[in-house]
Design goal:
Elements (H helix, E strand, L loop, with lengths): L15 E6 L5 H13 L3 E6 L9 H8 L17 H7 L3 E7 L1 H8 L6 H8 L4 E5 L3 H5 L1 H12 L3 E2 L3 E4 L5 E5 L3 H11 L9 E6 L4 E2 L5 E2 L6 H12 L3 E6 L11 E4 L3 H12 L4 E4 L6 E3 L18 E3 L3 H8 L5 E8 L3 H11 L4 E6 L11 E2 L1 E5 L2 E4 L3 E2 H14 L1
Parallel strand pairs: 1-2, 1-3, 3-4, 4-5, 8-11, 8-13, 11-12, 13-16, 16-17
Antiparallel strand pairs: 6-7, 9-10, 14-15, 17-19, 18-21, 19-20
The structure holds ligand PMT.
Length: about 400
């Protein structure tokens, strides 16, 4: 806890991962995951089944993790005879990836015939399982039954992805992407205090076309809105992200709708607003659009004529007028002066429950940077947050929203 709020982890730094690797061709991909974990300062200890060693050598995992790799139950050093107990006691999460049909069946029956399965039974930490196998094996009733059993046991199963498999067939069974697993692991260490909340977030700029080549827009990169979406999903929320054109990866587990113009953004937001518990408008919506969108590219030899503009809908104000008591409405304010006063004016004018004010003149805050420093303005007063990453800022915004 820091100044009476949870420190919500934004990464796996310092986390200890006990990684169980089983005998699937996808084991080679998991070797790459070890590198991803260690570059994020997570500590990885690998336990391999006998079959796993047929695909990737223990030396590979040892070199990548920098730690001893465990294999069978029966180890040489007598003091490590209790490895099946100590290994999970010295870890924060037990990740089994790839998980073969055979290992899934063994775990479903509570078997402990090797170090990995024994460690799972002895574990008092979250267990995350990533099935990876041929589609027919994955969809086989026996495997599906065993996976259901793992879920009943409280293990977290990350479903495989669909696509081309090592055997050349297409379908469900591919090891999930690293980003999906990374998000899941971080979420495990986050308080699920937004669970059950249906949250709509807007992010990024809008583009208002002048001709087929030119448009009015702004410097929003989407980073603030995407950080809000990612952190809300980690904390258990059902998140819909309505995003203008940005160059950011879609946060795993977030339903994302891509839009271009302010009017498209408004349409999508109003569609989702009815069922939303919280709406956060982090997008930089263009207030104006060119009155005439030329069908042909304007030629400069035609002379430069003034661009006539007309007003775009004010989505936040529209939401403020129609929102019912059950929906919490959060707006942002991009200001270059009179920050708090402007935030309060917008709070009242747009009937929002919270306005997040950020300065767009400072290089380290506002548009297209990884950090931000915001003032939270609500009916109860205002609160200045320190300069920090947009991800930490997002977590603090959720913390504050939960107090309203
Ligand atoms: O995307 P990044 O690069 O990370 O930058 C983040 C950000 C600076 C874009 C973000 O932190 C931010 O300040 N977003 C709001 C930008 C903006 O449009 O502020 P504004 O003061 O002009 O608008 C006030 C509020 O009304 C905002 O919630 C905005 O979404 C909303 N609005 C504005 C105009 C409009 N036509 N419809 C709206 O809903």
């Amino acid at each position: 806890m820091i100044d009476n709020h949870f420190v919500v982890p934004a990464s796996l730094t310092g986390k200890r991962i006990l990684l169980g690797v089983t005998g699937s061709i996808a084991a080679y991909k998991v070797a790459g995951w070890v590198r991803e974990f260690t570059t994020r300062s997570a500590e990885v200890t690998v336990v391999m089944t006998k079959a796993a060693k047929r695909f990737v050598s223990a030396m590979t995992f040892g070199a990548l993790s920098g730690n001893r790799v465990y294999g069978d139950m029966f180890v040489r050093e007598p003091e490590e005879l209790m490895a099946h107990i100590t290994l999970s006691r010295e870890a924060d999460v037990l990740l089994i990836a790839p998980a073969t049909a055979h290992t899934i069946a063994r775990l479903a029956c509570g078997m402990a015939d090797d170090l990995l399965s024994a460690a799972v039974l002895a574990a008092k930490i979250p267990v995350v399982v990533c099935p990876a196998m041929n589609t027919a094996m994955y969809t086989h009733p026996a495997t599906q039954h065993n996976i259901g059993r793992l879920c009943d046991l409280g293990y977290h199963v990350i479903p495989p992805e669909c696509g081309e498999l090592a055997c050349g067939e297409e379908g469900a069974g591919r090891l999930p992407e690293w980003e999906t697993v990374h998000e899941k692991l971080i979420a495990l260490f986050c308080p699920q205090d937004l669970k059950g909340k249906n949250i709509v977030i807007t992010a990024g700029p809008t583009r208002e076309a002048l001709d087929p080549a030119r448009y009015l827009s702004n410097r929003s990169s989407g980073k603030m809105g995407y950080a809000l979406a990612r952190t809300a999903a980690r904390r258990g929320a059902e998140v819909t992200l309505v995003s203008g054109p940005v160059n950011l990866a879609i946060p795993p587990g977030v339903e994302t709708m891509q839009v271009t113009t302010a009017r498209q953004m408004q349409a999508r937001v109003l569609e989702k607003a009815e069922s939303a518990d919280i709406i956060v408008k982090a997008a930089a919506v263009s207030d104006f659009r060119p009155k005439n969108c030329h069908r042909q590219k304007i030629k400069k030899n035609q002379g430069i004529s003034p661009i006539e503009v007309e007003e775009n809908p004010d989505i936040l104000a529209t939401l403020g007028k129609r929102k019912d008591k059950g929906t919490m409405l959060v707006g942002f304010a991009a200001e270059s002066s009179n920050h708090e006063a402007e935030g309060r004016r917008k709070l009242e004018q747009k009937k929002a429950d919270l306005i997040v004010v950020n300065d767009i003149l400072r290089p380290e805050t506002g548009f297209d940077v990884d950090t931000n420093q915001v003032i939270l303005v609500d009916a109860g007063g205002s609160k200045q947050l320190p300069l920090m990453s947009k991800e930490e800022t997002a977590n603090r915004i959720w913390d504050h929203i939960l107090t309203l």
